[in-house]
Every structure is written in C-alpha cells, then in structure tokens.
C-alpha cells in the first residue's frame, strides 16, 4: 500500500519551489527572457520546465519545512541569487544603452526620445537602436543558451542551503556595475571624437566667416556626421559586444562560487577558465 506522509509532501514542494525561485528570478531580471514582450505564461512555463529538469540533479535539500519562516528565508535568498545573476547580464545591455545616450546627446538627438517598453522609461532613438543590435548579437552567439547552462551549473557550485550566503558577492556585483560607465564611454568614443572634430571645424569656419549661421548649418552637419560614423562603426561592434557577453557570463559563473565561500576561508576570486561552450563563441 502506498502511503504519503507530510514530510514527503514537504520534500516534493521544496524540491520544486526553491530551484524554481532562483530560475524565475533570473528569467525576470535577464534582458532577453525578462523582456516585457514575452508573455508571463511563457516565462513561468520555461521556469517550471527548467526546475523540473534541474531538481533531480540538485544536491540534498536542507531539512526545513518550506512553509516555515526558515523556508521562506531560503526562498528570499534564492530569489536574491537569481536576481543578481540576471542583473549581471542586464548591466551589459545597460552599458550599450548608455553608449547610445551619450551618442544621441552629442549628435543633438537628445530630444528624440521615445518610450522604451524594456526599461519602462524614455530613451533616445540611438539607444534603442543599439539595444536591439545587442539583443540580436546576444541571440546570434547563443549566449542565452550559455546563460541557462550557467544557471544550471550554479546549483552545484552554490546549492540550496539554509545558511546565509557570503556578502562579498554583492560587492563584486556592485563593482561589476561600473562597466555601465566605462563600456558606455568606450563604445561611444568614436562618435564623440568625430563630432568633437566636427564642432572644432565648425567653430573655425564660423570664426573665419561670421556671416554664416552656425545654428542653421551646425545641427544638420553634426547629425549627418554622427549617422555616418555610426554606419562606419557598425561592422566593428560585433567583437566588442561578444567579449562583453563572455565577461558577463563568466561573472554569472563566478558569482555563486564567491557566495559559497565563508569569510574566514574566502580568497581573492579569479575568473574561471572559460568552458568549451564559451570558447566556441569566439570562433
């Protein structure tokens, strides 16, 4: 006779609930899976499917009732871990969007802003264009599949546990956020440099011929030069974006290892060797 106890039911619930929390948190925070254009039903279905696949291979669960306060704390911790992993990839897209904002303001297109459904705010036309370009590059190199692979791997490097994670991982996440500014400036540097030269030339031209209307000819020239430089730099953006995706996924892989270390045994974290699937992205 088959008998099912309350402990078995709690174990089944915990075996699906805790991995599902981390997976859904990453899906909600990642730039591609968490896009507002993706229906919520698709996101939840994907999360449940991944949780059902991952759950049998996850190490032993903590002996905690999922409906107790300790179980709810585990749920909150898993949600924070998933959000941090997805936010690591979102930082890369934020850096690309910042490059577009810098380019737009330099070209004089700062007023040409539209509603962006991804950020639920207003962003410039160049920023949205570069964001779409980064999304296509993300799909072209199969980085979304490698991201899911890193998510599954995190259950081995950082198993579900009732112990609190080491807070040093959040500091590394904050340091990783500096990429928004450094990468944004680097990607927009060709446009900024070209427009700086253009503005200097316009200033010299206006000084030599004061009768010219600088406000009448300056905007069309700077706009045309900016669009021309963007068209010239597009073929060369593939490799920088690909390297950014590689760094972001390596950061996702490194983060669970950092959190799994205790403060008394923690060592300076180093980026792990790129796995074979990441090596194939560079081929």
UniProtKB/TrEMBL annotation:
<keyword id="KW-0969">Cilium</keyword>
<keyword id="KW-1003">Cell membrane</keyword>
<dbReference type="GO" id="GO:0044780">
    <property type="term" value="P:bacterial-type flagellum assembly"/>
</dbReference>
<feature type="transmembrane region" description="Helical">
    <location>
        <begin position="44"/>
        <end position="63"/>
    </location>
</feature>
<dbReference type="Pfam" id="PF01311">
    <property type="entry name" value="Bac_export_1"/>
</dbReference>
<dbReference type="GO" id="GO:0009425">
    <property type="term" value="C:bacterial-type flagellum basal body"/>
</dbReference>
<comment type="similarity">
    <text>Belongs to the FliR/MopE/SpaR family.</text>
</comment>
<keyword id="KW-0975">Bacterial flagellum</keyword>
<keyword id="KW-0472">Membrane</keyword>
<feature type="transmembrane region" description="Helical">
    <location>
        <begin position="180"/>
        <end position="202"/>
    </location>
</feature>
<dbReference type="GO" id="GO:0005886">
    <property type="term" value="C:plasma membrane"/>
</dbReference>
<keyword id="KW-0282">Flagellum</keyword>
<keyword id="KW-0812">Transmembrane</keyword>
<dbReference type="InterPro" id="IPR002010">
    <property type="entry name" value="T3SS_IM_R"/>
</dbReference>
<feature type="transmembrane region" description="Helical">
    <location>
        <begin position="69"/>
        <end position="93"/>
    </location>
</feature>
<keyword id="KW-0966">Cell projection</keyword>
<dbReference type="GO" id="GO:0006605">
    <property type="term" value="P:protein targeting"/>
</dbReference>
<keyword id="KW-1133">Transmembrane helix</keyword>
<feature type="transmembrane region" description="Helical">
    <location>
        <begin position="214"/>
        <end position="237"/>
    </location>
</feature>
<protein>
    <recommendedName>
        <fullName>Flagellar biosynthetic protein FliR</fullName>
    </recommendedName>
</protein>
<feature type="transmembrane region" description="Helical">
    <location>
        <begin position="12"/>
        <end position="32"/>
    </location>
</feature>
<dbReference type="InterPro" id="IPR006303">
    <property type="entry name" value="FliR"/>
</dbReference>
<feature type="transmembrane region" description="Helical">
    <location>
        <begin position="129"/>
        <end position="152"/>
    </location>
</feature>
<comment type="function">
    <text>Role in flagellar biosynthesis.</text>
</comment>
